[in-house]
Design brief:
By secondary structure, this protein is of the alpha/beta class. The chain contains twelve helices and nine strands. Strand 8, helix 10 and strand 9 form a beta-alpha-beta unit.
Length: 296
């Protein structure tokens, strides 16, 4: 692996653990911290490594934690291929990064859309962790009217060069970011809001998030989920307004052996709201899966 130090925004969380890596035709920003069995953390659409700002160091006390910015997000580069933001393409890209890092995670944790990428990797035999944890995972298509509107609207917005500029200007108003976060059912501290505000003011990040949503296909993933062989644990939050907890119950119907663990009244960004609880549940799950013997 050839890694380079990355100059980031001076207030970016855990920047001392940041590296730039070239893999799979992309320039990645990732954070690598802690020691022990390797854990992969994959954030959701519109987020970046800051999403794990408190959780990653907590997990780093027991694991080597690898947390990349997805293609087009945060400080990672844009895919060059036209379909580079599709679910299979992002799965292949992340696999190429892991090969470059010469690591094979024994546990993988994905939030929202990040969980879908990990599930696709496991289905395509690009990843074989001992346990896959989905934090409010976006594994199924949106139902009803939002499901009909989501993809066409995302494709329309992704075609415009003006939308990222407009979003970046609107993001200068902190209240706009606070409302967006509250609409997910979560309430973040000042640092969390500031990180999302910083990202939303980066036109490349906004464009990457829109491109990702425009190429997203969860119908195929939902069709393939029943043949998932990796042990799956679903963390669902009752206060999640983005991925209702009932979606986790629907996933469990497709995969009866999956376990469902409640995150209580937290929202979509539960791991940012209560990283201590999330860390405890992840460590306990890892121990039960045999990743951390004797720690159950």
């Amino acid at each position: 692996m050839s890694a380079q130090a990355v100059p980031l925004h001076p207030d970016w969380p855990n920047s001392a653990s940041s590296h730039r890596v070239h893999a799979g035709g992309l320039t990645w920003h990732l954070q690598d911290l802690g020691s022990g069995p390797t854990m992969l953390l994959v954030h959701g659409a519109g987020a970046a490594t800051h999403s794990w700002r408190v959780l990653a160091p907590l997990l780093g006390m027991r694991f080597r934690v690898i947390a990349p910015d997805l293609p087009g997000h945060g400080f990672s580069g844009m895919p060059s291929a036209a379909d580079g933001f599709s679910l299979p393409a992002m799965a292949r890209s992340l696999s190429a990064l892991l090969q470059c890092l010469e690591t094979d995670p024994v546990i993988a944790v994905g939030h929202s859309a990040g969980a879908a990428i990990l599930a696709r990797m496991a289905l395509d035999r690009l990843l074989a962790p001992q346990v896959l944890i989905c934090l409010n995972g976006a594994l199924l298509p949106f139902s009803g009217l939002p499901g009909w509107l989501f993809a066409p609207l995302a494709r329309l917005l992704a075609r415009s060069d003006l939308i990222p500029c407009w979003v970046a200007r609107r993001a200068r108003d902190r209240a706009v970011i606070e409302r967006l976060i509250e609409n997910t059912g979560s309430h973040l501290d000042a640092e969390g809001v500031a990180c999302y505000q910083l990202l939303a003011q980066r036109r490349s990040h906004v464009s990457g998030a829109l491109q990702m949503m425009a190429q997203w296909d969860l119908q195929t993933l939902a069709h393939d989920l029943p043949r998932l062989q990796v042990p799956l644990v679903l963390f669902g939050a009752e206060g999640d307004r983005t991925i209702p907890v009932r979606q986790m119950a629907r996933v469990k119907e497709l995969l009866p052996d999956a376990r469902l663990i409640s995150l209580g009244s937290l929202g979509h960004l539960a791991h940012e709201e209560d990283p201590n609880l999330t860390a405890q549940l992840i460590v306990r799950t890892a121990a039960q899966a045999g990743v951390l013997p004797g720690c159950a």
